[in-house]
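Submission sheet (multi-component)
Chains listed below:
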Amino acid sequence: MSSSTFMKLEIESRSENEAFARVVAAAFVSRLDPTLEEISDIKTAVSEAVTNAIIHAYEDRIGVIVISARLEGNRFTVEVADEGVGIIDLEKAREPLYTSKPELDRSGMGFTIMENFMDELTVRSAPGEGTVVTMSKEIRPKIS
Amino acid sequence: MSSSTFMKLEIESRSENEAFARVVAAAFVSRLDPTLEEISDIKTAVSEAVTNAIIHAYEDRIGVIVISARLEGNRFTVEVADEGVGIIDLEKAREPLYTSKPELDRSGMGFTIMENFMDELTVRSAPGEGTVVTMSKEIRPKIS
Amino acid sequence: MEIEFVLRHSILVVRLKGELDHHWAGQMREAVDSELARLRICSLIFNLGGLTFMDSSGIGALLGRYRRVCAAGGRMVLCKVPPPVSKITEIAGLARLIPFFEDEAAALQHLLLGASPTRRS
Amino acid sequence: MEIEFVLRHSILVVRLKGELDHHWAGQMREAVDSELARLRICSLIFNLGGLTFMDSSGIGALLGRYRRVCAAGGRMVLCKVPPPVSKITEIAGLARLIPFFEDEAAALQHLLLGASPTRRS
Ligand SMILES: Nc1ncnc2c1ncn2[C@@H]1O[C@H](COP(=O)(O)OP(=O)(O)O)[C@@H](O)[C@H]1O
Ligand SMILES: Nc1ncnc2c1ncn2[C@@H]1O[C@H](COP(=O)(O)OP(=O)(O)O)[C@@H](O)[C@H]1O
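Outcome: structure written.
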């Protein structure tokens, strides 16, 4: 088995693609033989990042979302990048319960969920240029 | 529902990616509500094209395979592109049972299967530059 | 995603099946709000037993229904939180606001008789 | 993909489960060839009942086993071709070379007694 591999997926910022992105991430990580809970964690975190790109980054227009993923040993790393509005105050954005769109029933829990469901989360953003969310998680080897 | 959408996937030419590419193609087309047989046809055709890129285009090295797909109305179109060795005699390559690698248990049926399982197949190739296989299939609307 | 409505006494039971993400949250919200308006009632039980996935958009949609129901003088509870959904509801601290019950019967009993909730955590 | 071997009389039954593509075809080939060598027998029944997917790499792997078995003086048949796999076996015309049977019992009877195959097409 090769110890490192990558994939890159480009999709449009349409809400139907939230489920699609989850399926792709789960299928990609499946070769590390993750548990159901690990798959569910990854699906949730990817769903949060892709949903944010759809709602916040591109708002009412359709833009491109690039999802890149790598496997290195037992580590799964995924990057969700958009070229949308960007985030002015990153610290505030990452606070639990903060949302810029309370009128849309947003809970402001997206970043908190990503942090809790993955091992590492970093966010880079430039206003007017876009946002890149990078998350990684160690898939524990099974004893068989 | 939007009547047109696309996606683009880049993967490495590793045989584990054959199953991954099938899952991605099936998940992408699923929003047209295809039958089990239509899904199976698409998975098979995509598997053939990706396998050819792995075995024939890149032979013993690892290269990149780009899978682009579109939905336009009820039509699913997928393109599998490699930057591998290319095909010198396209007509001969598309003949049923022709294979350049009989020693590998190849059946020479890949292009025949793609043609039979999809509505349209076009192959463009330049020796030393690579090959692009484009296939499309109409997903019949369900009466509900 | 599938939504099933059942009227039990004057309480609307909403049974959700499938994946509750942002794509479906909007449709769920509209369906529930218009059903509440049509029946002219204001109390709700969400049965989450059929959910295979929920993210923070689902949390937001449930909280949105909760605020709306409370503002109208009604009450809302959840029941049958399935394993794929329990982790996110815990991290979001949803049970601190909205009572959780084992099943529809226990939820109904609570709303009709005011019995105390059997918290999961 | 899973491979199960069963020795019935002096015939090796190979039960395949999962997806037979190029990735698994090589492993299947090695497993079958070494099992035949180990048991020093040369006749084969492939039970495809558990396959959920097969492409032309699977066809090639089956034909490769067929040629090998024939060259060694043995015989090879297939049984339990499931719906997801029947279309590709038909287009490839596999039944023109390799006899197809409903189940292992019918395949075994044919190999042991020379009964005629119940063709599917
Ligand atoms: N990709 C993005 N582009 C622009 N802004 C974003 C992006 N992701 C998040 N944000 C900002 O960060 C805030 C907090 O995000 P999050 O914790 O996911 O909560 P929510 O999505 O519920 O608002 C959002 O309300 C938004 O203002
Ligand atoms: N992507 C490709 N790059 C280079 N050569 C190719 C490619 N796809 C197909 N070929 C050539 O066309 C031939 C026929 O392909 P196919 O019908 O799929 O049969 P098989 O894969 O079993 O050989 C191959 O043997 C190979 O020589």
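Remark: Helices of chain A lie at 16-29, 36-57, 90-94, 110-117.
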